[in-house]
Write a structure and sequence with these properties.
alpha+beta; 4-stranded mixed sheet; 17% strand
């Protein structure tokens, strides 16, 4: 279950008071693009990562942030286009390709720029050595998307672009025995594809069943579905966020570090969206006070109480106790 863009959020903006302030030790801070009133500026974002008693890591405002302000941007650690969008988006950054003049071709896939082609060359050189037809058929038959992300991550690890433990900091999902059994089938297909491509034991030493299962468990609850809305950084961010709600069809999925530390709320004060590619933008939906926790909505916020609780429990492994759920709205 991926983290969906906030659905039809406008019904719930400013319905509740600001979330309680938290005074916890600073664990993590980041530099990124931030702004006020939609303007693109460079500087440290007004946030910190700390601990909560109930939800572990969380993101807090270090100063007052106005409604509609850009909090920060985030580049993905890992991206992967959907099978349906392979011919229409950049193989690396997931930007939509508009016409043949915008494409940079390389061995059957397309990129939006020479930079993306160059940045993907390492893992794509690894990928093109293997025959992935059985693995892709397995994913298509079972409608699985996350094993494709594990395949790409594996190629990136072999190429040296990422380390095998790069996602260890992220919280893993709890997997059922039935899910683990299905996962093991995919692991066997992936392992065989690498071995048939004559990769050495040292090349794939990291690719154990335990590693494969652990990566899938982390991707399952930390991957974001990428719905591009177009537009530019200078446009009104609330309007762009609304456009992301109305958009149809994901171009792929991506995993991030800092955005994965945002906790869920069915009446969120922040929102994540994507303009031209998989570079994420997080913005406020209302005024946020210093020390207040910033939260996004993992699912469609327009659903009723019971549907939200079921989806969050089955997909993310928790029952929501936000103010809106406490009122059973």
């Amino acid at each position: 279950m991926s983290r969906f863009a906030l659905g039809r959020y406008s019904r719930y903006i400013s319905r509740h008071k600001p979330l309680p302030r938290q005074n916890k030790p600073l664990l993590f801070s980041s530099s990124a693009t931030s702004s006020q009133d939609g303007a693109c500026q460079t500087g440290p974002p007004p946030i910190r990562v700390g601990l909560t008693e109930s939800a572990g890591r969380a993101v807090f405002a270090t100063r007052r942030i106005g409604s509609g302000d850009l909090i920060h941007t985030a580049k993905p650690v890992l991206t992967c286009p959907s099978l349906l969008s392979l011919d229409s988006v950049c193989y690396l950054c997931l930007k939509k390709l508009m016409g043949s003049s915008a494409k940079f071709e390389d061995r059957g896939v397309s990129y939006c720029s020479q930079e993306c082609q160059d940045n993907a060359k390492g893992f794509y050189d690894v990928e093109t050595r293997g025959d992935w037809s059985s693995f892709v058929d397995y994913c298509r038959t079972h409608n699985f998307k996350y094993p494709l992300m594990v395949k790409r991550l594996s190629c990136m690890v072999i190429s040296g672009a990422l380390s095998a433990d790069c996602l260890d900091i992220l919280q893993p999902a709890t997997l059922s025995s039935a899910m683990i059994s299905k996962i093991e089938d995919g692991y066997g297909l992936l392992w065989n594809a690498f071995r048939k491509a004559n990769f050495t034991d040292d090349d794939v030493a990291f690719l154990t069943k335990q590693w494969y299962t652990g990566i899938l468990a982390r991707i399952r609850i930390n991957a974001f579905r990428i719905d591009l809305v177009g537009g530019s950084c200078g446009e009104d961010l609330l309007s762009l966020a609304a456009a992301s709600v109305e958009g149809e069809g994901a171009v792929g999925h991506a995993v991030y570090m800092l955005p994965s530390f945002y906790n869920h709320d069915c009446d969120p004060n922040a929102h994540i969206f994507w303009l031209q590619n998989a570079d994420a933008r997080l913005m406020t939906l209302r005024d946020v006070e210093e020390g207040e926790e910033l939260r996004i909505c993992y699912i469609d916020a327009s659903m009723g109480y019971e549907a939200r609780q079921t989806l969050l429990s089955q997909g993310f492994g928790f029952c929501c106790n936000c103010l809106r759920c406490q009122s059973r709205d």
